[in-house]
Design a protein that fits this description.
The protein is an all-alpha fold. Helices cover about 75% and strands about 0% of the residues. The protein has 11 helices and 2 strands. The protein has helices at about 1-10, 15-25, 45-50, 55-80, 80-85, 90-120, 125-155, 155-185, 190-195, 200-205, 210-240, and strands spanning about 35, 40. A hairpin with a 2-residue loop joins β1 and β2 (about 40). The radius of gyration is 19 Å and the shape is globular. The two termini are about 20 Å apart.
Amino acid sequence: MFEIFKILFKERYKDPTLQLMLPVILVGYVFIPAFLEKGNFEPYSLVVAYIPLINLSETVTFSLALRNIIFVLGDHLTNGSIVSFLMMPIKRIRFFAYSYILDVVLPYLFWLISNTFYLLDINMINSLTITLMLSYTAGYFFSTSVILFYTLLLRSNGASTLASLFTLGSIFIVGGFGNYTLIESNSSFLALTSFMNPYPIILAYSFDPSYALLNYLIDGVIIDGFLAITLFFTSLIIFYRIEV
């Protein structure tokens, strides 16, 4: 069974993927010290430095997972080459698990390990950075679960890409504006909408680290986690029943 795992690994991380990806993830943390002011991290600046698209490491990690899911696994489904893999001596559930580990979990581990070592090196492990890491983790697995679901459901690279980016973009943008409005009105509905875009709440939390805002962030992480798990098992059922 390990031989099949090696085949899948080489397919997804053949040269020069790792040689390019790992240095970019490491260099991406240059944006964090770029927000230094008077030799110290301003909390709100640290939050801005961790927002996806600004934080290059997070963006590259997510992009790699998207590429693996849609343009490797999804491509096999689109052109029918998945049949050759399913004819190997491996159960569908194990094949799905191997693919998920390589497509989603491994890029996340690259980010998590490098980010943790970086924060330890600059002595910045605190409640704010832990909150940022938890929020990104929950959002990452929710987002990749959405992409995986669309990839297996639509079985078209173009349609999966458009559906995934439209869904995630809409959630992130609407959630950003919505959460900002709810913060201003001090509404308890933040507990339900915080999962859509936690960064306005984290930014507000960096200015005023109150327990109420922290509770909203925790609620968002829990909702993201629940949705990610639900979509994961839904995708597993779709893959298990898929006819090739």
